């Protein structure tokens, strides 16, 4: 019995010339509009090409299927979120726990905004879980968290800081994803983020006091 092939999520090639880079940008902008307007179930390469004003053949030069387009949108979102969280966590003009609170709130909002992408990518999930972009995203997140914990818990051992980082990141990731996919309003997601941020700050305050 022939097993169904997994969708390919990698782009075919990277645009090099200015014109081709603009084409890819137009395709991605159109993809966002189609996803917002039509939803995940009606998201197709044909609709994206039509919205972008390009031929399907031109689209296929860079993206082999709709999953590849969606995955590119997802990785772009990860990059933006990572840069935002990094800028918050390294802002030494603010107290560490204040930075953590702001980071949690920014993360929850990001999860809520990208929930439609995760749903649309559901059938491609087995293909992209081990993609280099996913590994890089997770590695960068761990490194950001551990650098912050080294500042917050300077007297703790590396093993202790890794454990605390894992607790904080797992809590943020699991709860943030769950809440964002429950069709809640932005106000509700923000309320959840404040509660989770408060709990994590209390947890870390006890850790700081106990070292």
The SS-based structural class is: mainly alpha
Question: What value does the average pLDDT take?
Answer: 88
- Number of DSSP helical runs: 10
> What portion of residues is helical?
over 70%
Distance between the termini: 59 Å
Could you provide a short overview of the structure?
The chain contains ten helices and no strands. By secondary structure, the protein is an all-alpha fold.
Provide a descriptive summary of the structure in words.
The chain is mainly α and 211 residues long. It has a domain at 73-210: Tetracycline Repressor, domain 2 (Orthogonal Bundle), CATH 1.10.357.10. 73% of the residues lie in helices and 0% in strands. It contains ten helices and no strands. α5 runs parallel beside α9 (158-180), α5 (96-113) runs antiparallel to α10 and α8 (132-152) packs across α9. The protein is elongated and about 60 Å long. The termini are far apart.
Secondary-structure topology with pairs:
Blueprint: H1 18-38, H2 45-52, H3 56-60, H4 66-89, H5 96-113, H6 115-120, H7 125-128, H8 132-152, H9 158-180, H10 186-210
Helix pairs in contact: 1-2, 1-4, 4-5, 4-8, 5-9, 5-10, 8-9, 9-10
